[in-house]
């Protein structure tokens, strides 16, 4: 896959993608080996909101940040570090950890950004953070219970959870599964339509959205049925 240069706040991030890192059990290539378009969209959205300065709740200066399912790239978490976060932890499954570390080092961010293995749903907790980032992790409704458990261990009362996703036929099922676990949804961006640049054969354009997950007791307003919005 090689190396990509991605501009963040006037500086370039150097992102190394992995080739052929396979699951030792299934033999399938790990999806976190490369950057997904959702990561680019979340990173861009964070830059835009940080630069607009009209919404202080999106200011990352001095914040602690964890990225779940960061893949080998960790682009949203690295972007948070570039935007002033005081501590960032990039997490994913073990086979992607070396790739994440390489990207932290390549961008000289190791004084702020740390890398940890974190499998959703396990007892392992890395403590509470100000902000949780996720991109393209809503692909398997059966995994959402485990993800919700990890989210709860990373969230205090004031934690903000920002997620970007491609809107696929099963996205609504994933969000409904998270709602069952107590997380509501507030959309932060209008759906963005882009030509897909990711791996695999060139596909048609697709829709993406950035939103905040909110623990339902704090949500104020929770959409009544995700399937109404997400198909
Ligand atoms: C589609 S990839 C997205 C990678 C990256 N966030 C991006 O947008 O470029 C989904 C990521 O979720 C991670 N993931 C899936 N299930 C997981 C689990 N149970 N525990 C931890 N990470 C998981 C995968 O390893 C993979 O890196």
TrEMBL record:
A Pfam entry, by short name: Methyltransf_16
Gene3D superfamilies: Vaccinia Virus protein VP39 (3.40.50.150)
InterPro entries according to UniProt: Methyltransf_16, SAM-dependent_MTases_sf
Protein name (database record): Uncharacterized protein LOC107487534
Lineage: Eukaryota, Viridiplantae, Streptophyta, Embryophyta, Tracheophyta
Gene name of the record: LOC107487534
